[in-house]
Structure formats: structure tokens, C-alpha cells
């Protein structure tokens, strides 16, 4: 606990230095977010912003509030205090439907796929919001609705190609190995054509090769589609390699924010991860 | 030859009974598809819908108007269930949702009794009650009421089957039943889907309540009778609309044929337990039913 009580808020650089790479305007802004469950403060007065086109990592020890943060961003949790600014609106809490329909897609720490459905059907659910034709046309499977279904199917096929999962197109996802399930989950998020992609530990439980594949996919998505990415990851090597800017949380507080190099040198971060010597 | 016609009559009677079971089973399937939960309250919804309908009729409201009001009540009921119960249980275990439906069932039973009393209400909406005699010399008797009920049930089932099989709501329903969080994350409006499904289940309950009520009178035992749908569901699969129909027909025909042809050898009363034995055999050899989604568990 010494690390938490020991640090002074003013040592935190609020406006993190921008990376060398070209990044755009602020697309998502979180200010003074506070979230508690009963007596436990999961997030305590955290502010940070995400810029268009960057890869933004959130790191921190277990229980630091990283997943809670992501859940606030896509509306699963309602913070008790603070504001979220997104898509031209400043809100006290996000609504999941608003988030999804304005281009926020996500994956989960414990894979949340539709287990009984095939890979293809899972990806097609990502297109739900893009379908416009009414139930009547859908029911007849005729005319505009059929054309629409074909268009969406075509898009889903490009995602399948991109992620190299052609061979498991028809396999019920519950039957797939863990690494592939993670990939299908990423595919479902990509099928939404998101502007912001939230990834909760995309590489947890993967072997080295799978991690390399996943890193490559994340970088490709970011570069080819210009998708902004917010990710939580425990593998420091990966985080430092692929992200532009890093937020560090510890016990629900923000203790650092900056480029990977800045964060690596930050004394608070080193203390949080390695602990500080106790003085008697 | 006479025996042949008799056999046809038995099978036909079974099929008519079967469509009645299908009608009840359908309401369960709808809600199961959208939440992965057996809605214990479905039988009570049948009772409640029928009570409202017959209640307004007895107050002198014209038939069509009474039907519209009862339908409106069932839709309002769907909104209430979503607002006061389901909304607060997003992302909970199926068993918790199931417990909630038990609560809903008892609420509905008490509420129905409070509003309409506990008497048996006879119901006659003008479905013809005579019989046709067909075949050579009219050896076979067909109840007109049975035919009318089967036509209504069949029409309803066909419309619903089309709706859920061929619209994107089918995929959305499976998604919602599978994983609430994931469904929300891709932007499927969970609350709307629940309202739609409960409203449709309520309307199906109304139709089932009127038909069963016309035959047996609107009374509280209707809610228990609804449990007869359970073996139908096990047979047809909990998630399949066509399954509910085929399951209902098999159970209906099976019961009647077994009663008539096996009865003399092993004693009567087969009708009472035949459905449950069939259901048990299915649970042993094909737990997902004839048409249900296969459950895959990676160990």
C-alpha cells in the first residue's frame, strides 16, 4: 500500500506527450471518472483521452481497474462521478447501444462469443446495426433485403480473409481452441467496422506465436483501417512494442500517462510493479 | 376397412390434440430462444390472458374489442416485465432468470384472481361445435371445433415460424440467449428484443387461452395444463418453433394411439404418462430434442 499513499498527484503528467507518429484529434475523453462497488473504489478520479488513430494501452497490476475502465467506456458500468465525451456528446455514463451504434466495438477478457453459432454467424451478428431493411422485407427474403444480406456477407468474408480464419467458417465456435476463439471475437468486433476498438487482454493465455499473430493483426487493423485501439494487456513486451501511448493504473488511480519510454522510466510505475522497500 | 377408418380417426384426434399442445409449447419456445430460460410463468400467462378476455366479454364488451383489449394488456404486460424484472437481471445466470419467472408466475396468478375472481368462466366465441361424418357411410367422426382450433393454431405457428426463421431477429435472438454482454457489445438492443418476445409470447398465450378456454372453460387449472408442454419441448427442442409443432403432433398422436391400441394389453390411462416416458427416452438419447441447438462443451 505504501506505493499508493506515497505518491503525490502533482507528479503525474496530465497531458501526456504525443508520440512521434501522426495522430488526430481527441475522439474519446474521460474526465474524473469514479466507480465503486459497495465500499470498494475500483476507479478513483481517473482522466485520460484517446486520440484518433492511435494505439492506447491501459496497463497496471491485477485489480487496478483496467477492465472496469473499459466497461465504463462501452457502457456496461455507469460511473458514479465524472464525464465521458464521445461522438460530440458529454455524458455522465455511456449507453451500450449508443456506444455500439457510434462505432465502439470490443472484445472481452473471458471470451464472450455466441458459442452455439458458427464463426460466420458470430461475425454476422456484428453487422446487426448496419442492417436497415425492415422485418417485412427480411421475412420475404426478397428484393432489397436479400441484396443487403449479400453485401453484409461479402464484408464479413473480407474480415474472415483478413484474420485468416477461412477454414473455420462453418465450425461452431464452442469447438474451437482458445487462441482461435480470441481471433473470432476480434473478427466479430471488426465486422462492426468500428472507429474505436476496445481489446481486453487480447493475448492472455496465448503462446508466443499466437501472440505474434495477434500483435500483427492489431497493428494491421490500426494501419489499414485507421481504427483507434484501446487495449489492456499484461505482456509488457507487447505493450511497449505496439502502443503509442500508455495509461498506468494502480489501485484505481492513474499513476502515469505517456509514451512507452516515459512510462518505463516513471518511478511510480516501477514502484507499483516491483513494490517499494518498507522503512521501519 | 372399418378398422382402417377407425385408425385414421384416432390419428386425426391425436393430431388435433397435438396442435393444442404445440400452441402452448410455442410460447415457451419464444422466451427460451431469447433468454435461454424456461419461462415458468407461461401457463399463468395463458390463464391471465384468457381471464382478461372472458372478463371483458362478460362485462358486455363486443368480441373483437375484448380481443383487442386483452391483446393490449398482454403487450403492456411485456413492457412491465422488461421494465421491472428483466432489465435488472441482465447478465445474470439462467437459473436466476428462471427463479424470476417463478415469481412472475405467482404474481400473475394472484393478480388474475384479484381482478377476475376464482370462478370457472364458460367461454363461447362461436366456434362451431358440431361434427362431420366422413368416409364411406360416414364411419369417421370429425369434431368441427377440433378442426377450427387446428387451423387457428396452424396459421399462428406458420406466421411465427416465418418471422423467426427468416428475419434477422432470429440471429439476434440466438445471440441474446447465448451471451447478454456480447450481444450488447455488438449493439443488439437487448431490452427491445425482450419486449418483442414477451409480447409475442403473451399474444400466443392469449390465443391458446381462448381455444383451451372454449373447450374446458376458463379456470385456474389451465395454468397447470400448460405444463403438458414440457414433454413437447423436450421432444422438439427448446429452441425450435418447428420443433414445437412436430413435438406436439408426435405427443398428441402417440398418446391417442398408445391409449387405444396398447391400452387393452397393459391397462388404460396410458394417455396420462405416455408423453413423459417419450420425453425421458429423448433425454437419454437426444437431449437437444429433434430440432434444438446442439450444446457444445469443450472440456
TrEMBL record, chain A:
One Pfam family of this chain: BCA_ABC_TP_C
PROSITE patterns, alphabetized: ABC_TRANSPORTER_2
Classify the source by domain of life: Bacteria
SUPFAM superfamilies recorded for this chain? Answer: P-loop containing nucleoside triphosphate hydrolases (SSF52540)
Q: Which residues form a coiled coil?
A: none
Q: GO terms for CC?
A: plasma membrane
**Residue ranges annotated for the ABC transporter domain, each copy included:** 28-276
Q: Does this entry carry the keyword Ribosomal protein? A: no
Keywords, comma-separated and alphabetical: ATP-binding, Nucleotide-binding, Transport
What PANTHER family does this protein's entry cite?
ABC TRANSPORTER ATP-BINDING PROTEIN (PTHR45772:SF1), CONSERVED COMPONENT OF ABC TRANSPORTER FOR NATURAL AMINO ACIDS-RELATED (PTHR45772)
Protein name stated in the entry? Amino acid/amide ABC transporter ATP-binding protein 1, HAAT family (TC 3.A.1.4.-)
What species does this protein belong to? Answer: Thalassobaculum litoreum DSM 18839
Q: What lineage is this protein's organism placed in? A: Bacteria, Pseudomonadati, Pseudomonadota, Alphaproteobacteria, Rhodospirillales
Automatic annotation (TrEMBL), chain B:
Alphabetized, the UniProt keywords read:
Amino-acid transport, Cell membrane, Membrane, Transmembrane, Transmembrane helix, Transport
Q: Where in the cell is it found?
A: Cell membrane
Q: Which GO terms describe its biological process?
A: amino acid transport
- Which coarse location class applies to the principal site listed for this UniProt protein? membrane
Pfam families given in the database record = BPD_transp_2 (PF02653)
Query: What does the record say about its membrane topology?
Result: Multi-pass membrane protein
Q: Which InterPro entries match?
A: ABC_transp_permease (IPR001851), BCAA_transport_permease (IPR052157)
Q: Determine the domain of life of the protein's source.
A: Bacteria
- Which segments cross the bilayer? 6-30, 37-57, 63-86, 95-116, 147-166, 193-212, 232-253, 265-285
Q: Which family does it belong to?
A: Belongs to the binding-protein-dependent transport system permease family. LivHM subfamily.
Q: Which PANTHER family match?
A: ABC TRANSPORTER PERMEASE PROTEIN, BRANCHED-CHAIN AMINO ACID TRANSPORT SYSTEM PERMEASE PROTEIN LIVH
Its recorded name reads Amino acid/amide ABC transporter membrane protein 1, HAAT family (TC 3.A.1.4.-)
Q: What organism, scientifically named, is this protein from?
A: Thalassobaculum litoreum DSM 18839
Amino acid at each position: 500500500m505504501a506505493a499508493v499513499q506515497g505518491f503525490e498527484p502533482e507528479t503525474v503528467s496530465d497531458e501526456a506527450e504525443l508520440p512521434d507518429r501522426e495522430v488526430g484529434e481527441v475522439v474519446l475523453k474521460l474526465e474524473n471518472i469514479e466507480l465503486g462497488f459497495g465500499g470498494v473504489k475500483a476507479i478513483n478520479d481517473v482522466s485520460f483521452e484517446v486520440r484518433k488513430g492511435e494505439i492506447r494501452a491501459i496497463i497496471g497490476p491485477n485489480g487496478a481497474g483496467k477492465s472496469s475502465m473499459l466497461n465504463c467506456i462501452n457502457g456496461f458500468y455507469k460511473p458514479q462521478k465524472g464525464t465521458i465525451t464521445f461522438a460530440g456528446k458529454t455524458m455522465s455514463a455511456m449507453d451500450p447501444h449508443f456506444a455500439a451504434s457510434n462505432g465502439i466495438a470490443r472484445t472481452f477478457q473471458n471470451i464472450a462469443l455466441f458459442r452455439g453459432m458458427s464463426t460466420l454467424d458470430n461475425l454476422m451478428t456484428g453487422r446487426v446495426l448496419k442492417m436497415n431493411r425492415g422485418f417485412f422485407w427480411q421475412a420475404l427474403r426478397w428484393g432489397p433485403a436479400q441484396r443487403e444480406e449479400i453485401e453484409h456477407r461479402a464484408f464479413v468474408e473480407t474480415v474472415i480473409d483478413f484474420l485468416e480464419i477461412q477454414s473455420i467458417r462453418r465450425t461452431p465456435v464452442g469447438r474451437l481452441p482458445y487462441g482461435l476463439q480470441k481471433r473470432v471475437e476480434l473478427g466479430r468486433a471488426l465486422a462492426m467496422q468500428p472507429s474505436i476498438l476496445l481489446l481486453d487482454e487480447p493475448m492472455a493465455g496465448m503462446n508466443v506465436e499466437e501472440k505474434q499473430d495477434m500483435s500483427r493483426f492489431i497493428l494491421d487493423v490500426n494501419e489499414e483501417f485507421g481504427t483507434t485501439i484501446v487495449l489492456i494487456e499484461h505482456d509488457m513486451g507487447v505493450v511497449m512494442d505496439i502502443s503509442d501511448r500508455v495509461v498506468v493504473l494502480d489501485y484505481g488511480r492513474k499513476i502515469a500517462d505517456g509514451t512507452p519510454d516515459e512510462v518505463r522510466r516513471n518511478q511510480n510505475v516501477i514502484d507499483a510493479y516491483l513494490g517499494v522497500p518498507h522503512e521501519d | 376397412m372399418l378398422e382402417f377408418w377407425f385408425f385414421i380417426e384416432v390419428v386425426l384426434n391425436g393430431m388435433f390434440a397435438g396442435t393444442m399442445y404445440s400452441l402452448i409449447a410455442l410460447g415457451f419456445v419464444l422466451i427460451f430462444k431469447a433468454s435461454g430460460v424456461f419461462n415458468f410463468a407461461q401457463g399463468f400467462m395463458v390463464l391471465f390472458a384468457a381471464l382478461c378476455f372472458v372478463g371483458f366479454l362478460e362485462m358486455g364488451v363486443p368480441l373483437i374489442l375484448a380481443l383487442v383489449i386483452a391483446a393490449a394488456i398482454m403487450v403492456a404486460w411485456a413492457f412491465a416485465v422488461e421494465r421491472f424484472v428483466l432489465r435488472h437481471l441482465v447478465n445474470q445466470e439462467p437459473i436466476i432468470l428462471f427463479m424470476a419467472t417463478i415469481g412472475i408466475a405467482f404474481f400473475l396468478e394472484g393478480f388474475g384472481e384479484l381482478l377476475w375472481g376464482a370462478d370457472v368462466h364458460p367461454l363461447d366465441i362461436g366456434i362451431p361445435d358440431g361434427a362431420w361424418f366422413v368416409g364411406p357411410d360416414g364411419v369417421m367422426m370429425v369434431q368441427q371445433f377440433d378442426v377450427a382450433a387446428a387451423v387457428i393454431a396452424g396459421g399462428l405457428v406458420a406466421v411465427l415460424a416465418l418471422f423467426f426463421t427468416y428475419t434477422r431477429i432470429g440471429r439476434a435472438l440466438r445471440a441474446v440467449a447465448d451471451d447478454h454482454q456480447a450481444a450488447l457489445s455488438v449493439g443488439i438492443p437487448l431490452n427491445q428484443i425482450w419486449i418483442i418476445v414477451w409480447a409475442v409470447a403473451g399474444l400466443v398465450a392469449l390465443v391458446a387461452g381462448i381455444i383451451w378456454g372454449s373447450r374446458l372453460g376458463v379456470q385456474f387449472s389451465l395454468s397447470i395444463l400448460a405444463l403438458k408442454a414440457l414433454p413437447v419441448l423436450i421432444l422438439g427442442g427448446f429452441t425450435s418453433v418447428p420443433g414445437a409443432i412436430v413435438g406436439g403432433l408426435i405427443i398428441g398422436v402417440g398418446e391417442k394411439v398408445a391409449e387405444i391400441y396398447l391400452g387393452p394389453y397393459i391397462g388404460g390411462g396410458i394417455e396420462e404418462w405416455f408423453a413423459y416416458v417419450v420425453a425421458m427416452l429423448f433425454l437419454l438419447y437426444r437431449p437437444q430434442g429433434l430440432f434444438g441447438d446442439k450444446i457444445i462443451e469443450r472440456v
